[in-house]
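Support reply, case 0932

Customer input (verbatim):
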Amino acid sequence: MYTMTTTTVERLVRSAQELLWERGYVGTSPKVLLERAGVGQGSMYHHFTGKADLAAAAIERSAAELREASDASLSGQGSPVARLRRYLLARREVLRGCRIGRLAYDPEVVADHTLRAPVKDTFDWLLRRLGEVVEEAQQAGELPATLDVRSTAATIVAVVQGGYVMARATGSSKSFSAAIDGLISLLEGSHPGGGTSSGPA
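Our regenerated output:
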């Protein structure tokens, strides 16, 4: 999994990211972390004070990566609705769930301010960023001016996160795709003129 040139810190953080995604905080033991990273116990405690400190670094990294990927979809070429569509249709490992969203279900993460903060901050950022694009769409005449910007952004986030939950519950990505397709139809169908977004997908 790792090359000889991969730093110990990088191994630990990447391993923690993967394990938190697979098992959550409670299910990720220091022993499993060390085995996945291929390092000794001394190496971990040389760089981190313990499991919580390493998990915080991993969550921060995952949060930053999610924001970067989301912003890449929501920025750049295309009309505002086309960029929302691009975000919704971005490639995701649906059956594994959302790296950040699933941590909100972990009682240890929710109870610890340091671990929960990057989760909350990421959703706050996503709501703001989506809201900006929704507002752009209104100004461009692609979405009705009567739509509440924050509520619309929250709906987009809720559909994506709910789609992950349905997919994991059913064991099929079709549930996720159906939710996303339904939301795209609503967004494109709400054009004041009755048409769909004319920008590139």
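We compared this against your earlier run and they match. Two observations from our side: The domain at 8-189 is CATH 1.10.357.10 (Tetracycline Repressor; domain 2). The chain has one domain: 8-189. Please reopen the case if you see a mismatch on your end.
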